[in-house]
Design a protein that fits this description.
This protein is mainly alpha-helical. It has a domain of 140 residues: Tetracycline Repressor, domain 2. It is built from 12 helices and 4 strands, in the order H-E-E-H-H-H-E-H-E-H-H-H-H-H-H-H. The strands form 2 sheets. It has a two-stranded antiparallel ribbon. Strands 3-4 form a two-stranded parallel ribbon. Helix 5 links the parallel strand 3 and strand 4. Helix 7 runs antiparallel to helix 9. The chain starts with 19 loop residues before the first helix and ends with a helix.
Amino acid sequence: MDSAPCFTRWQVGCTANPSGAAQDQTARARERPRETRQGQHDLPHPGHPEHQRATQAAHVARAVRQLLGAGRGLTPFGRELVAEMEALRMVVDLAHVNAAGVDDALGAMTRPFVVSHSACHAVHAHPRNLSDDQLQRIAERGGVAAGALYRHFPSKAELFVEVFRSVAEQELADLYEASSAPGTTVDKLDAIVREFTGNALAQPRLAWALGYEPVDPLVDAERLAYRQTYRERLAELLRRGIEAGELPEQDAELAAASLIGAISEALVNPLSPVRSERASDEQTIAAISAFCRRAVGA
């Protein structure tokens, strides 16, 4: 061949449910009517994104059917395609290919190939995971099979809770370090405020998502728990300052809660994705720090 196309993974393999997902997507797109200017129901026009998605899904389904035999292994065309890829010295990736497809590839291919992300069928019986025999044969061929290891989260909310905890724990560690530095209570308060606001302003998108974005109740409960932890640690610092005579007598718990609320509210506009004109980060940090010092009577 004078030239060869670039083939993707699904063009050389087979899936556990070969074309069902693509066919379902195409069918759903065709079943959803759209109002035309004449008031009639019809498909979206060819330039509409949904029309393009339905067309792409149909192409995928057609191509996969051409590659699959009755046993959902490689068809003659699929074998021809794999042979041409080997002739071009392309590294074939059989990720997303089912057991029959891997067996066919092992029988048809002569060069090493890769399975870039799969897992062991003996550990988790999924149609795309590899059997012990297949893993052994791939190794003997000089190929590579990379296992996919990940932690499962039952829901998006539980995943977000874990992300929130990870960031919040690091934030608490940073605040603890700032409060442990040498100096007066006011110096430590200033260091904590600067650390907290500086970290938020340095990563505004992350800070907005973790602190202000509407979330599931499970995540919101986690937010409240960590706000309470921030308040307790700040209240402890204020109590030490009161006992040392560095701050006037006051309700440390209430003062700490007020400071946390004020800092959070002050950062709404600076962190907002649709924020208006605002001061520089350093000016914002300095203004919030000065407010906090005045609020506790420093």
